[in-house]
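DM from R.C. (forwarded with permission)

"hey, sorry to bug you on a friday — could you get me a structure for this? deadline for the figure draft is monday and I only need the backbone to look sensible"
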Amino acid sequence: MVHYVPRPCTGQCISQERAWGREADSASSLCVTCDGYVCLACGKAEVGGIFDFCGRCAAFESEIDQEPDAVWDDEIDTGPEPRMRLTAMVNQLVAATGTTHRDVNARINRTIGVHTRVGADEQVIRRAA
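My reply, with the result:
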């Protein structure tokens, strides 16, 4: 029987997204060099859990976003195919701003007050759009 031996942290943490160019939510938090997690914002600092921020990024984020923006009922997207619309909007923002999908999606998630939209219901996706 083969036993898995966890890869210890070498202090050279970098997210799978940064190392391999992957765009999945999990690639933003999983370290490529060890079995730990990296900061969701900078993708380089070791953190205790998935979708966590390191101390430096958490302090920076708290200065920028004191609390989620208010979302009014008339701002909720009511069109067809909300997931496709949101994906198109994210792609347009990435192209227009030169930022990454990870950064755009993280900002959207903070704005609507969720940690992730993975498995989110349609109403959350509509709010995000």
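R.C.: lifesaver. The mean pLDDT is 78.
me: no worries. The two ends are 49 Å apart (CA to CA).
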